[in-house]
Amino acid sequence: AQSVTQLDSHVSVSEGTPVLLRCNYSSSYSPSLFWYVQHPNKGLQLLLKYTSAATLVKGINGFEAEFKKSETSFHLTKPSAHMSDAAEYFCVVSPRTGTASKLTFGTGTRLQVTL
Amino acid sequence: EAQVTQNPRYLITVTGKKLTVTCSQNMNHEYMSWYRQDPGLGLRQIYYSMNVEVTDKGDVPEGYKVSRKEKRNFPLILESPSPNQTSLYFCASGTPRTSGRTDTQYFGPGTRLTVL
Predict the structure, then answer these.
(1) Mutation site, B87, B107, B112, interface A, largest A CB count within 10 A
(2) pLDDT in tens, A48-71
(3) How far apart are CA A6 and CA A107, in angstroms?
(4) What is the rounded CA–CA span in Å between residue B73 and residue B92?
(5) Which of A2, A15, B27, B96 has the greatest number of CB atoms lying within 10 Å of its CB?
């Protein structure tokens, strides 16, 4: 069994300040973890993924996330927010073993960026 | 261009009128899947397919059917739509776990369905 908890449904930051979107996971298997972003009226785009290599993962648009097994966390960060980062972000878990690529999504965090 | 396409993008229909949402991918992916997105619930998997003629239920399959007769296509069928199926639907494709490759999934643009 696997599950994902995104700890904040809504985060608001000022442009130029750091972003932190929090994600905790639960998985019976060694997990793969992903962050996807969804801009308004758009599909989902992969930001970054962790699949057992380096625990600090760098993604597109300056985002990165750190896999912490002891804390079962995979928080998403960015040093300096930009207006174009305003979107909904989904943390996703998938088992790294087994035959099915089953993704389990968190409920999403809406990031608002203000001037 | 590598992509997943869905049609239609928007659909308003009435209760009980059968409909099909098409999904096609040009990346030769074995794995395809349908999700629905509802406010506060994230994305939930409806059905998935590991390859041609191989389909299985996801977390919320009730009221839906799928078929996988060709590798590139994975239509979603609502035989008798009901208002609780009003949602935003996403199709996705990717390479399955057993291939040894990553399980990154690529998503279509979404289909917004309203059932009156």
Answers:
(1) B107
(2) 988 877 889 999 999 999 999 899
(3) 7
(4) 11
(5) B96
